[in-house]
Amino acid sequence: MPDDGRLERARAWFQQIRTAGPGSLPQFSPITIEDESLTRTERSAVGRAVAAPDICLIAADAPSAERIARATAREAALRGERVLLLAEADSRRTRLEELRPVATAVRNRRWWSLTYWQAEPDAVGKFDRLLQELTAAEPPGLTVCPPDKLHTAAGRWDRLISLNSDRLTEADATALAARADRWVFLGAAGQAGWWSDLRTLLADETWVREGDRLRCRLRHDADQSQLSSEPVADTPDVELRFDRASELAEVVFSADTTLFAAKNFLAEQMEAWPIDLDAQSITWDESAERIIACAGCGDRPTAIPREVEPGIRELIADRTGSLPWFTYGIEFDRSEGWNRTSAEAWLAGRFPAVSRVVTV
Hints:
Layout: H1 6-20, H2 40-51, E1 55-59, H3 64-78, E2 83-86, H4 91-107, H5 114-117, H6 123-137, E3 142-145, E4 157-162, H7 170-177, E5 180-187, H8 194-203, E6 207-210, E7 213-217, E8 228-232, E9 235-242, E10 248-253, H9 259-270, E11 283-286, E12 290-294, E13 307-309, E14 312-318, E15 325-333, H10 340-350, E16 357-359
Parallel strand pairs: 1-5, 1-16, 2-3, 2-4, 4-5
Antiparallel strand pairs: 6-7, 7-10, 8-9, 9-10, 11-12, 12-15, 13-14, 14-15
């Protein structure tokens, strides 16, 4: 790649995010994807990835990750972008290249060629049908390149889409970012290193891990290097961290503290109940008694007994990874006066931003 300053610009972008946080990035609205071959969650991920003006990180396992990557690449290319998708070529592409010399020989009636006489029946028809399928799947502007062949894909793209990004080093990721102006990185959840750090940063999560301890970030704009700390007098395993203005910025709990216990502590001691929730991936489940905003409801464990507000309960479930719990939904009690309209308004007011991080 020519040394024209692209790599340094990519490094500067990632450094800016570390310094200023995701709040410095422009807001955007996801687009609607109508592809019925994708699940609802996959369509939501594609809609957000295509709309993101800079970066989108998607945690998804195979084969869902590949479906999302290819659909994102296609949608972006159909919108006029030059897209580089780092993935293995479609098996139809390999078959097309096998048929290409055969179809050429038959079309040009090269009867003196051995390829002409060895052509299988309807070789030209098979070639044309495959070409039509691939043109629909890989519109003009989309380049699909195996990761180990990236050096042969010269040039610069509007958008780069990378599978298995959890396996990249920070240097590798920065080098890839230098090849395009927008980026979609897909990888598995629960991986440490560059991938995990960037996901945590971009998600602007309140609840994170610090080593084996649970940390609640009450001030996301606090300068970590300027924080002072002191233990709670009657609970010494809980650490309070203050910024230079003596405002509480973080609370750090012991290794064996559960998310529910930590939330109870904050509610009782500070009248706060911080929640991490991807409100853009919500689906709704309504009954005569309650309304549930689901963000990956799964088997729906019992709601925690404490109310966030009158008639509102947070739903917490277990998961694998560094933080073994997550908020999978919010339950609204109709007997307390909640309805679908007021529930949607409450979510929009508390979680207004569209995150650049999606978990499928």
